Every structure is written in C-alpha cells, then in structure tokens.
Amino acid sequence: MSPMAEIYEVSFYGDQIEVTVTKNAAVVNDWINSHRCRLHKLLVGLDIEWLPCFNPEENHPVALLQLCVGRRCLLFQLLHKDAVPRFLVDFLMDPNFKFVGMGVKGDTEKLLRDHKLLVANTVDLNQLALSVYGEEVYGKMGLKRMAKEVLGKVMEKPLNVTLSKWDAEELVYEQIEYAAIDAFVSFEIGKNLFNSIWERQREIEIRRRTVVKRENLNCHYQLQFSSSVSVLTLLFQLIKLDLRGSPSLKAEVKMKKLNAERMSDKGLRLKTSSTTTPESQLAASTSVDVNSHFISTIKPYTIKNPTLYLPLDFVKSNGLMDKSEMILVNEKQRSWSMWLG
C-alpha cells in the first residue's frame, strides 16, 4: 500500500471493485487522469457521505466524495485532504462527463456549499429511470430499491454503517465497502438506463434510415419558392443548372390552377425545339428540352408560390440544399416536374 493511498478490493455480485482511499491531492489527480483520457464522454457514479445530523441545528460538511468509473472507485476524504486537487476541480466542471447519482442535485449543491466544488453536468437517476420506464414510482425510489428493480440486485445498507463516523481520519472496511458499493451501483444503474435510451434511439434511427432509403427510390425534392416568381424565372432556374452533357431531360411545366398575373403587354411566347406553344396551352401541360438552352419568348406570367420538383440525386450533386427550402416528397414518376401555382 502507498503511504498516500490505500487500495481495497470490494465484491458485489461477482464484480470485483478496485477502491482507492486517499486524502492526497496527487493521488486524486493521477486517478482522474487515468480515466479522463480513456473516453471522450464518460459516465461517472457520484455519491457523498457526511457525519449524520441528529438535530436541525447541525450541519456537518461533506466528509467523503465517492467517484466510480466501471469497476474502479475513488474515495476522497475531503475533511483530511492535503490540498484541493486541480484535476478534480476541472474534472467535475467538465460538461463532457455525466455524473449520475440518486438525489445528485442535492449532493452537488452541498458539495459546492461545503467545499466550493462545482459539478457541471449531473443526471438524477430518479428522473432518468422515469424517462425510460414512464412510471411515477421510479421518480421516488431510493438507491436500494432501484438497484433491485433495474439491476435485479439487493444492496445491504446496515444502519450502523449509514450513521457511522464518516469524518474519521481512518475509515474502517465496512465504511469503505458501503461507500464504494453506493457509487458503483449508481454508475451501473446509470449505465443500464443510458444503454436503454441509446438502444431505443438506435432502433428509431435504423427504422428512419430504412424508410428514407425506400422513399428515395421513388422521390423527388420539392423546392418551394416563398414569393411569386415568373414562369420565365422558373425556367431559367433549370437552365442555370447547366445540364449540357447530360442525357436529354424534360422539364414538365404544369399549371394546376392558372392564377397568373400578366406583368407585361409584350407578346412573348415559350418556344420548344421546333414548335411554339400558344399562350392558350400554358394552362395545360408543356414539355421543355432543358438541354437546348433556348427559352425564347413567353408572356411573363407571375405565379404565386410555385414549386419545382427535382430528383434527389441531382439536388445533392448540384449543391441545391442551400438554395431554397427543401421538402422530401413521394413521386412515382421519374420526370423532372415543375409545378406552378
């Protein structure tokens, strides 16, 4: 055993927990450093102990801070520390780490009042279990009952240890075992509950990707213009995509409801390959060869909030995501459709 720390092994249902008990800041720094670099986001079981109060006027400070990661626990005797560990301060304040515990909000508030140690990211096990199981009873459980419900394991919490002298300079084994198991069980419950949440999210994401993949086989993207746009402007949107070199594609122009407003008295017409589309046909359907780059004359109608449909792969390859509001829609046809009106 190091003169600055004592190492114990505590058993709990087959798990062998390595417990480091110390008053030394350097030992705490080393312990934290060895775990902090293991994972970017870490789950930490947290608990505290203090000398029990037997009348309302008593307010004993936190005597012991328990931290647990996996099967390794740190018991830091705050009342007998030689210094405040710098790494501990940074560790507790790091939002990347989730500190889980039963009534952890109250514990961390007391830790802040008594020792100026701020814990940035806490997760209360009651609220976490309530979000997973949806039953109000989980919001009121103590650690012992939750260990039984979530882990299927029974915790022994003898009253003589619960009410023991936690401010003693030398802790007895029963205290060390009790404190370590509290932190370990908090960690295990937190891990179990978060795994349930992550697994549920993973299943939802798999289902979502399956649906999107299936929809993408028969879908276009819908470009919704938020203001009135002339027919001529919409057709130029297709030409600006520069489809030269692509297979000959058709842009289908349809007027669902011809609610257009004439912007000019000029006699303009829409010209396709070798024919001229009369103005009267605009209310029906017109195909335009977008490779020909020949939009000629058309009476410039203005259409309110027109919608342009384009294939998904084309939208992605041409970087159109940022150019207008995109809405995924189901379309069976493979044509390039431009719906006006």
Automatic annotation (TrEMBL):
One of its GO terms (molecular function) is DNA binding. The keyword Membrane does not apply. It is found in: Nucleus. Coiled coil: none annotated. SMART domains: 35EXOc. GO terms for cellular component: cytoplasm; nucleus. Residues 19-198 form the 3'-5' exonuclease domain. InterPro entries: 3'-5'_exonuclease_dom, 3-5_Exonuclease_domain, DNA-bd_pseudobarrel_sf, RNaseH-like_sf, RNaseH_sf. Its main location: nucleus. This is 3'-5' exonuclease domain-containing protein. It comes from Capsicum annuum.
